[in-house]
Amino acid sequence: MVRKKARRKTRKAPTTLNHANLRTLGTSRLADLLIELTQRDPAGKRLLRLALAVRHSPAAVARVARPRLRGLARARSRMDTAAGQTAARDLAAILRAVRRGVAETDPALALDLLWLHFQATAATWSRSRGVDGVWEIRDEVLEWIPEVAARAKPDPIALADAVVEALSHWPCFRLLEDLGPHLGNKGLAHLKTRVENDFAQWSRLRALRAVADAMGDVDAFISTFPEEDRSHPDSAAAIGERLSRAGRHEEALEMLARVGDGARVPIEWFDARIAALEGLDRKADADADRWQCFTTGLSRRHLREWLKQFDAFDEMDAEERAFDRAERHPDIHAVLMFFLDWPDHGRAASFVVRNAEKLDGNRWDLLTEGAAELAARFPLAATLMLRAVIEFTLRETRTRDYRAAAQHFGECSSLAAQIPDFGRFPDHATYRARLKRKHAFALRFWKQAAPVG
Q1: How far apart are CA 22 and CA 291, in angstroms?
Q2: Predicted confidence (pLDDT) per residue in 392-446, tens digit
Q3: Is residue 389 part of a domain?
Q4: Which terminus in the chain has less CB density within 10 A, N or C?
C-alpha cells in the first residue's frame, strides 16, 4: 500500500505544463497556440519575435529591438510597477538577444544597440523609480560595452561622442575608466573638450577626473580639486593615491599631511599613505599605519599585511596579540564580525559566551548568519545569538517577524540536545518557560514556535 501511494505521488497528470507533455502536441499545434496567446500579449509577441530574429540574422535582431529601445529611451511619463516590470523583462530579453545573435558576428551593430540599450535602461530606471532588476541590467550593459568595443574597434572620436551621449542620460563615470584604452589619446582629448564645453558644473569635475585617470595625467586630476578642498580627507586620499601610483611618493605624503590632526580619515587615506611609505622603503612606518587601521577599524586586510613582517615562528604570537587587542575594541558586533570573517570560530564563540547580554538582537543579519556558522561546533554560542534575535523580535513594537523568530526558536530547540552544559545560562526548557511568562501574549509566535524537545 505504501509503495502504491508513493508511485501515485510521482505520476504526472497529462495536462501538467512540462516539456514532455507539451511536446506531445506537435510543433504545428504549439505554433498555433503561441500565435493565439501572443495576440493578447504584446510582451510575449516581442519575446517570440526576438527569438526568431536571433535564429535569422543580426539585422533581424536590430529591427525587432530598436523600436522598443527607442520607445523606452524617449518616453518620460511615470511607469507603474507592472509597466516597469514589463520594461525590465523586455530589456533583459533584448540584451540576451544582442549577446547571442549580434555581438559575435556584427560587433559594430551590437555596440550601437548597446548604447541605445543604455539610454533605454536609464530612462526606465528613472520612470519606474527603480523597479527591481533594472540596476542589474545596467551593470550587464556596462560590462558588455567595453568588450564589444574591443571587437568593433570604433573610431575614437565617434566613441568619445557616444560616451558623452550616454553620460548625459546616466552619469556613470565607470564608462570612462573602462573605455579609456579604446579611446586612445585622440579620443580622450576629444572627450575632454566635450566634457569641458557640454557638461554641467556638478558633473564636469567628476568627468574630468575620470578622463585624467584614463590619460594617466596626475596633474590634470589634481587640478579638478579646488585648493581649499585638497585638505579634505577624501580629496587628499584620492590625490595622494594617484601621486603614489605615479611614483611621486614624497608629494603624496605632503598632500596627505594637509589633513589636520584629529580629523576622521577614511581607510583610503591610510592606503595612500601606506603605498607612499612603501615606495620610500619606510616599511616600519607603513606597518605602524597598518596596525592603526587594524586597531581602529578591525581591518582584516591590514592585519594580514602587518603579520607579513614576522617569520613563521613569531607570526603565531603576533596574531594572538592582535586577537587580544581586537577583543578590547568598543564595538562588540565589529569584534564578532572580525572573528567570524577571519575566520576564528573558536574565538568568536568564546567572545559570544562572555558578552551574550550585550548582543543587539536588531543585528539579526550578523547574529543569524553567525549562528549558522557556529552551530555545528559551538552550539551554545549559536543558541545565545539566536536568543538575542528572538528576544528583540518579541520586544519590538513596530514590526514583528514572528515567523522568523519561531524558526529561530525551533533551531534553539534542536541545538539544545548538543549542549551538555549551559553554564550560567538557562537550559532550553527553563528559557522557554521564562520567555513564556514574559511574552505570554505573543500568541502568533507561540502558535508557530516548535515545542520543547
Answers
A1: 65
A2: 999 885 556 888 999 999 999 999 999 999 999 999 999 999 999 999 888 889 9
A3: yes
A4: N
